[in-house]
Amino acid sequence: KSRGVDGRAARGPPRSSTGPSYIHSKMMGLMGKPCGAAESNMDEFGEEAPVMYVEPGCPYRADDVMAPEQAVSTGTTIMAVEFDGGVVMCADSRTSTGDYVANRASRKISKVHDKIFVCRSGSAADTQALTGFVQNYLGQHAVEIGKLPMVNTCANLFQIFAYNNKDRLKAGLIIAGWDEKRGGQVYSIPLGGSLLRVPCATGGSGSMYISGLVDSEYREGMTKAECLTFVRKAVAHAMALDGSSGGMIRTVVISKDGVEEDCVQGNQLPYGP
User: Which residues are catalytic?
Assistant: First the structure.
């Protein structure tokens, strides 16, 4: 056995500070941890380790750096009402990511076909994906039959996707439109994927604040003008009470004569805080 300078048996060559394992550990210490992660001043060899620099104002902290970011959500107020000759659809325009307003003028009423639209609430990504799928299939269906598709067909397509993927989606939908067979129709698809035809439907986080107002103000046989006044008043009240609803009010009227879009800006709402 080799002997050291003091006569005792050497346990092996001294550990090199430039060997491959040491360099690898140093590189992992520099590259393997994300911004804001908790740092130890000692590495695995008991030596001083470099402390990573975190920029001032970095939004990540040591306790949440690995947590997924919150999805963009259309926490919202959506509404649709039938009238004699068509339907009126209404929605606010605020899209939020937690407490942050990601878009103050978004469009939550999306066109699916010429006279069929959908109001979207829940996850923006989920509802946009569903709308894209249904637009594709409904467009093919319209080509096959050679005429405008029925609103009921569109609602059933949405329901198939929503129900078959109910454990993976966060989507509340209101489908409304006009066709030559049934006239104006409103269909509601809440979370879970059930499908209901109703004369008046509300949805989104703000709908719970206006359930009493809707029950009090709604009546059958309203004209187009009365429906527009009704939905704007209801959504304005929801926007005043619900933190996830805001921006402006967008309306879409669908009838035999075509589609009419309009908006009420935030400083002209019929009701405000």
Answer: 76
